[in-house]
């Protein structure tokens, strides 16, 4: 094909859908290969392109290990076309299982389903549900699974009714089939359950030819639900419907070699009543994924230990530097302490102003042994008149013993040579 498009060389066409086509492109900057998803819908501006629901969703969800990452957004002013440059994966789940003769190993199925549940858990926690989970929109590359194509996604906070004919029919939940758009994020779990069965059995679970046949296929396997569940659906639909009681064949008969934990999770994902259906977060804690969770925990522990060792190594280096620098800091401390004791400011400072107290009249104290203060009124400090105070209990001083001591005098210093 070799068409240059805004810094990318188009290599070949990968696929095409109702609303877009996907091309393999090579960047002229770094030489890397990308998936170029070009919308068939035309828009008027780059601002409008950035406000597209799919673009907003991919920006909010990235980066995540199990979500296809948006690399760049291109808007062609001449044609009004928008292209999403995304990471290129090897194939989708449909291409992976198509034509296989033997079932996939259980550990491979488990590994892929764990990643799919992680992508749904992340997306739902970010307030978005996909609305078109199917094998064609689940991409893989080197055992890594990523959910893509967010063109049908919706906010979990948007109020129903939503668009009725959403999701591919084979993977459409009962609430999407039997209500006038009253569904929520639990529809993604139903679709993921259908994909789960298809990966294990290599065949679709409910391949209905139309809406009515789709409901019939579901009832053939799972049976008709309780009247209380049907009554909830009837309240959300203008057209009246009724189904005769029927017991389904069950899923286990379709995949007899399915491990018990996998079958348990599958039934919880395909609960007819969305209120009883398992969440992605709870699914990740299911017994079926126990080994993967333990392996993840072990990996996280190793990363933590590695990080701790890096911190310890840094601490040892810091202690070594501390040991070398401590004597120098100790000597500097002596100098600093001396400067602090001198209390010399390092900038010109004014002396503080004195609060002059106006002296009052002379005060006489009743105790005669206290010194008397002579007060003047000229603003000068008062003079202190010293008087001897003698207690009546004090003994008279005896100086007769001084005569016993000799008198000594220091010799005069010779300062002829500067003396010292």
UniProtKB/TrEMBL annotation:
Record key words, sorted: ATP-binding, Kinase, Nucleotide-binding, Serine/threonine-protein kinase, Transferase
Classification via InterPro entries: Kinase-like_dom_sf (IPR011009), MAPK (IPR050117), Prot_kinase_dom (IPR000719), Protein_kinase_ATP_BS (IPR017441), Ser/Thr_kinase_AS (IPR008271)
A Pfam family it matches: Pkinase
Co-factor requirement: Mg(2+)
Binding site for ATP: 37
Keyword Membrane recorded: no
Residue ranges constituting the Protein kinase domain according to the UniProt record: 8-289
Gene Ontology MF terms: ATP binding; protein serine/threonine kinase activity
Family in the record: Belongs to the protein kinase superfamily.
Protein's recorded name: MOK protein kinase
Organism field: Amphilophus citrinellus
């Amino acid at each position: 094909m070799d068409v240059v498009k805004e810094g990318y060389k188009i290599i070949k066409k990968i696929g095409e859908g109702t609303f877009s086509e996907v091309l393999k492109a090579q960047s002229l900057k770094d030489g890397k290969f990308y998936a170029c998803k070009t919308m068939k819908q035309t828009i008027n501006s780059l601002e409008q392109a950035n406000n597209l629901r799919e673009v907003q969703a991919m920006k909010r969800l990235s980066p995540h290990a199990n979500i296809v990452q948006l690399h760049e957004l291109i808007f062609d002013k001449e044609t009004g076309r928008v292209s999403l440059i995304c990471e290129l994966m090897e194939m989708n789940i449909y291409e992976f299982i198509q034509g296989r003769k033997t079932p996939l190993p259980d550990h491979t199925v488990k590994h892929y389903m764990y990643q799919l549940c992680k992508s749904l858990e992340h997306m739902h926690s970010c307030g978005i549900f996909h609305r078109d989970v199917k094998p064609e929109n689940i991409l893989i590359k080197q055992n890594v699974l990523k959910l893509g194509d967010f063109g049908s996604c919706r906010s979990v906070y948007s109020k129903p009714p939503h668009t009725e004919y959403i999701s591919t029919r084979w993977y459409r939940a009962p609430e999407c089939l039997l209500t006038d758009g009253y569904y929520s994020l639990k529809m993604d779990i139903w679709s993921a359950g259908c994909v789960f069965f298809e990966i294990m059995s290599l065949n679709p679970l409910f391949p209905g030819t139309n809406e009515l046949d789709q409901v019939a296929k579901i009832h053939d396997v799972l049976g008709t639900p309780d009247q209380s569940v049907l009554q909830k659906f009837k309240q959300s639909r203008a057209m009246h419907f009724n189904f005769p009681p029927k017991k389904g064949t069950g899923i286990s008969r379709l995949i007899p070699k399915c491990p018990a934990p996998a079958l348990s999770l599958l039934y919880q994902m395909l609960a007819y009543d969305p209120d009883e259906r398992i969440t992605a977060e709870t699914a990740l804690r299911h017994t079926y994924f126990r080994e993967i969770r333990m392996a993840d925990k072990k990996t996280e522990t190793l990363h933590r230990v590695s990080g701790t060792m890096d911190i310890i190594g840094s601490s040892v280096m810091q202690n070594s530097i501390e040991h070398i620098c401590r004597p120098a800091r100790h000597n500097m401390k002596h100098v600093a302490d001396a400067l602090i004791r001198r209390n010399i400011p390092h900038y010109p400072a004014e002396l503080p102003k004195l609060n002059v107290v106006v002296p009052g009249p002379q005060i006489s104290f009743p105790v005669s042994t206290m010194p008397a203060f002579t007060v003047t009124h000229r603003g000068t400090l008062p003079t202190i008149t010293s008087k001897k105070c003698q207690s009546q209990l004090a003994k008279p001083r005896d100086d007769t013993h001084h005569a016993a001591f000799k008198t000594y005098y220091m010799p005069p210093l010779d300062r002829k040579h500067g003396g010292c």
